[in-house]
Amino acid sequence: MNWSAIKAIYVTEMARFFRTLAQSFISPVISTSLYFVVFGAAIGSRIQEVEGVSYGAFIVPGLIMLSVITQAISNASFGIYFPKFIGTIYELLSAPVNFLEIVLGFVGAAATKALFIGVVILGTASLFVDLEIQHPIAMVAFLVLTCLSFALFGFIIGIWAQNFEQLQLIPLLVVTPLVFLGGSFYSISMLPPIWQTITLFNPVVYLISGFRWAFFGLADVPIGLSLLAIAGFTALCLAAIWWIFRTGWRIRS
Amino acid sequence: MSAIVEIEGLRKVYAGGFEALKGVSLAIEEGEILALLGPNGAGKTTLISTVCGITNPGGGVIRVGGHDVVREYRQARRLIGLVPQEINLEPFTKVIDTVRFSRGLFGKTRDDAYIEKLLKQLSLWDKRDSRTMELSGGMKRRVLIAKALAHEPRVLFLDEPTAGVDVELRKDMWDVVADLKADGVTIILTTHYIEEAEAIADRVGVINKGELLLIEEKASLMARFGQKHLQIELQTPIAEVPEALASHGLSLGEGGDVLHYAYDTRGERTGITALLNDIAAAGLVMRDLRTEESSLEEIFVSLVKEDAA
Lengths: 253, 309
Description:
The complex is a heterodimer. Chain A is an all-alpha fold.
């Protein structure tokens, strides 16, 4: 393993994050506060409790997932797209590194940034509602796995994208709807039966359900299934990236 | 000397069907400066990109320092530095950080003393904390060279290092290349500028349409294709070339005071002594003599034309 290459990529990617630290810190704080004002106060005043948990607290896991997934994708996709766009990718391609090392550097940094934002949101949320985390280890594991798997997914988008519009396309048209419809702000059991079945095809449901279980011990789907889903998604993304580097798809002519 | 870069039967066909390299074979000796000349689209950049790992080879074998660039890419690539044609730099990064990044990427541990020496050698030390977007074009090119040398490679590829660089900076760049050669680095550069190859290369390779037309010592190439040209300035202008000199194939310049004589340095006899004797015998008084060698440019043009024919 070329550890120094992984470190070099990771440090450089993190440096970009630190250059805009204030922005990275303030924007999740503001957006989380807004969600609490809108969903927590306005809607929460009508829905008192969901399965014994106050609505304000109930939406916290979904809210964290929403931001973490979005951030992991955008950081990782931009991280690898930018060198392609400005041409500095030549250096990565000519360096003595394999696909795993490049991925560890870029995805590791993107996941770290997303994790940071997840923690900031958790901190902000705890100012609004009382939070008790029933399974802290599982909570951390779900958070880290989500950051990693969606950073991997973002990395694929960054390689696939040939312009800035395409970079936004999948997060906007696929990921955001899936996250919103994945039970971020409601329990699946609140849906009509037919939609409950349809929702089970949305992979994000399993993530949010598992994450919420770690907080409150409540889950829409069995926890084992949630773990299996996220592990499967991670493996799928890794396999896709391995294939990309093996064939040089969209990066090596 | 032994070959540090060996290329055998290298082929490359791009996805669109364009055949960029048609079985190029080439051995580059350790410590030499090799200039690859060729028109646009000749395959120069594809050749370099394939050796460096940016483009997948379509067929053939490339070894650097005895390591196959596909199977033993780690060992091979550690020996190679690449300065690309385009100025590609992350705009917001500081000079010293981007150079350190390159060193790390190639698996070397941080060495501040070496980076300082390198930046000083390239006159970049004063600019080490500048963001790359604040630098002039020439300085950016130097940063690219510093990045390519950050991991102490033994072979340096320079893809059109002086394209779009003014004359002064170009000379500057040649000095840098000469310093690198003195340090024992093998240098392969591609160029449009024949004078560049003429000024700094030990050997010259000519590529056209994906084929290596020739590769040889610059001096012997010059000698082989070297047409020389003698200009004889006369004290008094004449109306036509005297009958006695007709056998020499002279031509008379416009003012009537310059005689032109072309000869081949490859020939056993250049005919110069006989010509000068005959001129004196014809009663012409010479004011000055000047000889000119044909440049690599002319050699190159004639080769490419031959290839097209």
